[in-house]
Amino acid sequence: MPFFNAQEHQSSAQREARLMSRLSDFLSFAEQSSDYYQRVFADVDLSQVNSRAALATLPITRKSDLIKLQAASMPFADMVPNMNSIGRIFQSPGPIYEPEADGHDWWRMGQAFFAAGFRAGDLVQNCLSYHLTPGGFIMDSGAKACGCSVIPAGPGQTDIQLDIISNLRPNSYCGTPSFLKILLDKAQLQQKKLSFKKALVSGEALTPALKAVFNEADIEVKQAYATADIGLIAFESVADAGLVVAEDIILEIVRPGSLAPVSQGEVGEVVITSFNPNYPLIRFATGDLSAQLDSPSECGRTNMRIKGWLGRADQTTKVKGLFIHPEQIEKIRLAHSEIKRVRLVVNHENNNDQMCLRCEVDDSARLDTDIVAIEQTIRAVTQLSGDVSLVEFGSLPDDGIVIEDRR
What we know:
The protein has helices at residues 12-33, 35-40, 52-55, 66-72, 110-115, 135-145, 158-168, 177-189, 208-216, 326-334, 363-366, 371-382; strands at residues 61-62, 86-92, 96-101, 123-126, 149-152, 172-175, 198-201, 220-227, 231-235, 243-245, 249-254, 268-274, 281-290, 305-306, 317-319, 322-324, 339-349, 352-361, 387-392, 403-405. The chain is of the alpha/beta class. The strands form five sheets. An eight-stranded mixed β-sheet has the order 5-4-6-7-8-9-10-14, with helices on both faces. Strand 6, helix 8 (177-189) and strand 7 form a beta-alpha-beta unit. The longest helix is centred in the N-terminal third of the chain and has 22 residues, at 12-33.
């Protein structure tokens, strides 16, 4: 079969009817089994929510709100119906806690790996982190759903990674595109050739420049759009033709700051309703911007397509696969009394994300400001490295922006 499952080529009308027929019952299940949705849906007649128009009237839960919601009720803000079903708890920067329950392909990533050409017998070097964040497990489960064997390599330690590649000759890679480029560059310095023939990348944008580099190295690369909360959202099946939305979720493109879906083709925020009984997420606003494309994929998959990641609807941004939140930047500022205002500037140089925290300090405090200490705080709070630039007091724009993404 040319698809991971038969649902991928059903008619659009069949898919929509199936999703809408499940919607009212699933909403009622969420309301009855979780205290959070009992509060959210207190005044809603869920029996009437059986269409996209009706769904669009329901409240939105924003990813950016999870920090406060979870702080008030650890670990999952009363959203998980049965904590006994949860096998792992992850912590992403924020902090935001995410659950994982046991089950085959729980993150639904098999579709993305299959579309990228992964098959039984492939050996996959998985270079997303298995430490605290769920990225490594998300990729791991998807590869194994296609019958692949997985090397749980994680990121970093490039010399060890290259030794593994030389010894085991994995034919496949999954992880961020920037780390694949790092491995490729290091291998070339050592006059080695990577054994990878295909790759599924996520966590960062796959730029045209990086695609060209990977093509030159004879590595066929596809990308997937997934989050630690939802799992798979969309995936690439035909190069440069947008991303096909995953089965078993409802995706809306909503005007940022509102409940209302935008017109087809208009840029808006990606909002997901996931039919996950272990972790119901209903009208969950990811903070990511995208737009719907106007026709099905040429590959034969009939679900709607989106353009891919087009930026952030809020100031939360993703750097090297990890989210950075405004609350974290404020935490860094408060840890150093000499800093008056800050702005984190994110750039993309030499195919790598780079962070610089611009800190306003008084002239009288400049000589006493410990830049190394601030850099250490950045690392402790965000799990990422960043430079520090001291700027004159009053020089940062008074526009309320604390994270400026220049990529």
